[in-house]
Design brief:
29% of the residues lie in helices and 21% in strands. The longest helix is centred in the first third of the chain and has 17 residues. The radius of gyration is 17 Å and the shape is globular. The protein starts with a strand and ends in a 15-residue tail after the last strand. By secondary structure, the protein is an alpha+beta fold.
Length: 213
């Protein structure tokens, strides 16, 4: 497992602290960059949303690795049903990492990319899709099991392929997303669990349509 401690990776800024030995896992960064490259190639606007999934601490729910796969499959299915004017579809792409907390319960850090021509309100997406899907998977009505990741800064970042600020938008999204690749706290994950997961990036007719580099 390669750990990157410099403040950039493949020319893009990442959230690290070399002086404290805090770095990001290169394979997780690669997965995200591939996903972002595809989405910018496929859509003129892309919205990025960060969120975390937790288990309720006051409920008798035994963590099960199948929970995260049920969540992923049901969320993608729900978003795939959404259609907008001009034939826009959500085209949701997910990547996530698992960490093991001190309390013995795993939690999951997610990055979700969607077609920004269809979704422009990240709060609506989290409240109407992400939260109810995870609640149904766990059979829980606890609203605190999804962290909207908006306490310390902006969420729901938009990338506009036609914007003069495209480079800055990509850099801001990459810096935010690199948090899920942080190596710290992943050394405690349970044996046999996956470090990372996500959706399979579709093939596109012209993969050279847009390049980040």
């Amino acid at each position: 497992m390669e750990i990157i401690t410099t403040n950039s990776y493949k020319g893009l800024p990442i959230n690290t602290d070399e002086s404290r030995g805090l770095g990001c896992i290169s394979s997780v960064l690669d997965k995200y960059i591939d996903m972002l490259s595809y989405m910018i190639s496929a859509h003129s606007k892309v919205m990025q949303i960060r969120f975390d999934l937790h288990y309720p601490l006051d409920a008798n729910i035994v963590p099960d690795r199948r929970h995260i796969y049920y969540f992923r499959n049901n969320l993608i299915r729900m978003l795939d049903r959404q259609k907008g004017s001009g034939g826009h579809r959500a085209d949701p792409q997910l990547t996530w990492t698992e960490e093991q907390g001190d309390g013995g319960h795993p939690h999951y850090h997610f990055v979700l990319l969607v077609n920004g021509n269809l979704f422009m309100n990240y709060i609506h997406l989290l409240q109407s899709f992400v939260l109810p899907v995870w609640q149904r998977v766990l059979n829980s009505n606890n609203a605190g099991i999804v962290d909207f990741c908006n306490k310390l800064g902006t969420n729901g970042m938009l990338i506009d392929r036609n914007s003069q600020l495209l480079k800055q938008q990509i850099e801001a999204c990459t810096f935010q997303a690199s948090y899920i690749a942080k190596a710290r706290s992943k050394e405690n994950k349970l044996k046999g669990t996956w470090l990372t997961g996500g959706t399979r990036i579709p093939m596109i007719e012209n993969p050279a349509l847009f390049s980040l580099f």
